[in-house]
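[retry 2/3] Probable endonuclease 4: previous attempt timed out, resubmitting with same input.
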Amino acid sequence: MIIGSHVSMSGKKMFLGSVETSIENGANALMIYTGAPQNTRRKAIEDLRIPEGRALLTEHDFKDVVVHAPYIVNLGNTFKPESFKFAVEFLKEEVKRADALGASQLVLHPGAHVGAGPDAAIASITEGLNQIITPEQNVKIALETMAGKGTEVATNFEQIQQIITGVEHNEKLSVCFDTCHTNDAGYDVKNHFDDVMDEFDQIIGLQKIGVIHLNDSKNEMGSHKDRHENLGFGTIGFEALHYIANFDKFQNVPKILETPWVKDPDAKKHSPYQLELAMLKSGKFYDTLIEKIINN
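[retry 2/3] Probable endonuclease 4: success.
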């Protein structure tokens, strides 16, 4: 199983620290933002401590590195040309950072139409990706399945395929399948995952799935809320998520956890990833996970 979680890249250690944290968690894959997800301030590539991090990855036989673009860039905004232009220029540089890190996937929230309608946003996203993508880049841009919060697009497989079809070098595109988002968008990943995969295969093709975000959901199917929950404590449940993690067609696809950190009675936050990864590996659900995380 190729499995890991979102880990931070900050402080003096940067990428080296991200790798060290992932090793402590028992992962063999990881996902990072190259800076804070809420802004677009980024350090120079030479300051990211990539060679040291890559050496440690090799030493511990890591299988994959995934980068997530900040979710504030919006290629779908047709009302503000300056926002579109900024998103294009930022993502061009993000591709360079992802390639320098040796990432296989650069996860991207495709965008939101902010009132112009999905078709206008999809046309704008397609135009932006055609300006960003080059045949020479190594990393694939993974279009994330979205929950449908606000005016998000890519909330169904048809919209994602519409974007892919419009991109010239779409061999450089993949899909990030988020279990919470697809649940909240109205796909029954809990009870009928095989059927959902058949539908995806017919519309897009399973070979396009480059990364899976393995998250439980705080909300019911079709809620369009996008609120992640710890594995087994949401409406999807551990049994379904364990099945998805072990789905035979995804053996070589990295599965990344983005579940929330847990607060203790003193409001101190604790990472759940070491225990959640252990649950997925063993197939055993800890119904006292929260207490274990706090007391670990």
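[retry 2/3] Probable endonuclease 4: Residues 26 and 139 are 25 Å apart (CA to CA).
[retry 2/3] clearing retry counter.
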